[in-house]
Amino acid sequence: MLAQLISSAADGVVVAAILAVAAMGFTLQFSLTNVLNLSFGAVMTIGGFTAYLANLAGLNAWLGLVLGAVAGAVATVLLGRGVLRLYARRHTQLFEMMMVTLGMSLVIDYGIQAISQNAIYGYTVLQAAPIRLGPIDVTPIQVAIIGMAVVLLVAVEAGLHLTKLGKALRATAVEPSLARSCGIQTGRVVLITWVVSGALCGLAGVVYIISTQSVDYTTGELFLPLVIAAAILGGVGSLRGAVAASLVMGLVTEIVAGFGGAAYSTVAGFAILVVVLLLRPGAVFGGAEDRQLVL
Amino acid sequence: MGAWAFYITTLLVYFAVDVLSAFSLNLQFGYAGVVNFGFIVFQAAGAYAAAVVVLGPSGGVASFQQYVFGARLPFPLDLLVAAAAGALLSFVVGLFALRRMRRDYQAAVLLIVSLIALQVVSADVPLFNGSNGLTGVTWPFGEFFGATATGQPWLYLIYSLVICAVVCGGVWWLSRSPWGRSLRAMRDHEDAASAMGLNITSLRLQVFVLGGAVAGLSGGLLVEYIGAWSPGAWGYAETFVIFTAIFVGGVGNYRGVMIGTLLVPIIFLEIPRFLPAIGYPGLTDSLEWVVVGLAWMLCLLFRPRGILPERRLRAPRAEGVALDPAPAEGGA
Amino acid sequence: MAGQLAVDASSSPETPAVGSPPVLVAKGVGVGYGGVRAVDDVSISISKGEVVGIIGPNGAGKSSLLGALGGQVKRTQGVITLGDRDISSLMPHDRARLGLVRTFQTTSEFARMTVYENLVTAAEGDRGASLRSVVLHPRQTAQRELELRARAWSIMERFEMTHTADLYGRELSGGQRRLVEIMRCLMRHPRVLLLDEPMVGVAPHLTGKLIDDLRGIAQEGLGILIVEHALEVVRKLCDRVVVMAFGKVIAAGEFEEVVRDPVVQAAYLS
Known about the structure:
The complex is a heterotrimer of chains A (about 300), B (about 325) and C (about 270).
Chain A: H1 2-33, H2 40-56, H3 61-89, H4 94-115, E1 121-122, E2 131-133, E3 136-138, H5 140-162, H6 164-174, H7 176-181, H8 186-212, E4 214-215, H9 219-233, H10 239-258, H11 265-279, H12 281-285
Antiparallel strand pairs in A: 1-4, 2-3
Chain B: H1 3-31, H2 39-54, H3 77-97, H4 103-123, H5 125-128, H6 142-145, H7 153-176, H8 178-188, H9 190-195, H10 200-226, H11 236-249, H12 254-270, H13 283-302
Chain C: E1 22-33, E2 36-47, E3 51-55, H1 62-70, E4 77-82, E5 85-86, H2 92-97, E6 100-102, H3 115-123, H4 131-136, H5 138-158, H6 174-186, E7 192-196, H7 204-219, E8 223-227, H8 231-237, E9 240-245, E10 248-253, H9 255-260, H10 262-269
Parallel strand pairs in C: 3-8, 3-9, 6-7, 7-8
Antiparallel strand pairs in C: 1-2, 1-4, 4-5, 9-10
Helix pairs in contact in C: 3-5, 3-6
């Protein structure tokens, strides 16, 4: 019983690490642009498939990780700069922007379905014999994933608070027009945010398929609910909040799965968001009414 | 019955089902401004509910398909159960998803509900036979006509058209009523509507549950015709076919919505059948969805008012009121 | 227009009200956002037939106070009574049903409904338009529609807006939108009217008429609380004035005395 709990909790930390990478990317772009980007899951799938193809081409798995991140960044920049700008020029409202990202998600998902012939592809790289630590079985790659999440959190936080660009980004997120009149090139800030968040997204896609050992066109879409829930629960715009929420989500989903409710593990994660919504909607959504589009 | 006649009949049954869905979604979205991105889940709930109450008692694990609560109910109980299932699920989801929040958050929460529901039903085999789904669903008049719905397509067509007409008429009538007008006020300005005495929380839940009931009914009607229902039938993308139909036809105009339904889910999605097959089987299906996504994005880009835009209702004159006493406003 | 001083800042002793009993009374109302106190211990009362103005520099908490009275903003302390009923924790629509209605700082007309529909819907914001009465009592509903029709037309006539009856809210000019908001409020037979900067967007040559209209409405027995920036409007319209700064009431009384108050002048200059 206790051993099961500890073992599930360890799995939960691994899931949390993957979730945290994605949630950081999601919250970063959402807090700046205010667009609730529903194509995030589709871009994760792009990252995953890129790594799969890299592996197929005989490239090193770690290089696949990097290529997945690059693909995520490129796709996100194309969508953000190319597509969303087009809509912004036609004065599309914030809310309609979210519908646009949903359309992009449909196009990407089913485009991938068409190309991938609607099949599931195995992706077994970087697998190694698990190390036993008491009740916990953990593979070296899982340790690496957790380490990577921690490093990324520290790196992005440091970038936000220590670099000039990070300060510009935070200023733009709070008060875009003021930032603009202070000489901050908000267009550049947004572009860099697309790059960074897209890279995190693509990376999360690769890490996710390493963990599940397979990839298909629904990969990102299945993970998206948890990402959005974690980002919203963490208080949009807060990286540390997103990571903390990811940890809670990861633990809850894996513990529920560990005790026989595999079908309901995602529901359990989502249930946390529902409970927060019911009890303290203000805590989650407070003060977000008058945000404006920044692209 | 010839192949063509059967094909046309089937399309018309689908049309009846889609019109029901589109009316329900138009009531929620076009009139009340509730962006139900999880719409298809409520249709699915009705389909599953209708399936298990006509399939008869479940054979359990030993049987080729498992499901909960097997029964054999006569008409109209099967459709009532389907509607009730849609309404009940809407109520439960509405309790948290309709909380006062930004509209894009609300839509995202409903989309998440749609994605998660699909995962759960696919993975939980004892519930509705998992990803294989349920088959062998018949229509409730089988004992009278000695056949399945697909064996008597003309009868089923009449049956579904009558139900569609009655329910859609009801939805239309409610939309035109003072209640429907309150929905539009809520859609246009929530704070002002509540400051004018409208109970927003209750109104939104009412329209969500009512729409859910109609969605459930449409699911029941559909499953009894095609005889089977599985997670493959209600991916999140299905919701956007109906949304696109509403955009094309004209948000808030039921006649337009009907035309949109004829154009998008029926004619547009049937065209590939008549084109030469390309690639591997299933490629056209995938590409169809890509085109739905593109159509959806084009709708948002050009913001068409639809084929028939929402109609202005001219104010009825009161007795003894002089018409247009003030010729021109001084540019206030 | 008895300019009785029924407003008490917490610092000053309470002055007994003369004349008709107040219809809306707020005692010690506070509103806080996070750590900021937008409204701090404000007490205010309005009597029938009286027009009370709230003035003060930007960020003084005027709109927050109106929000707390109308129920749109969560109050953190204090008691609000309408007539003899404590409405402090009622939802906005319940307050409206008891006769407390308001307009908003940014115009809030129903944009895709005609002016006529704007009016009629407002009046129905109670059980008259409920799903139950529409379905179960169609005859009463139809009867009610007829009554509302007559009322809507008479109000439109009064404000010389009958020619806009079939126009959508979004097709109106700024001033017309303000009028629609006020007409909509009147459809509800209100006891108290809260107006948030009703003159914004109204063409200068029409403000005089709107002032007369509002005075006329008040004389029919309504209490009006109005937030307004233009001091000239306040001087002509209001029986008495409450000055707010930094969330508190810093002065109250008749317009002419209040504006000469050095405390008020300091608040405006700072």
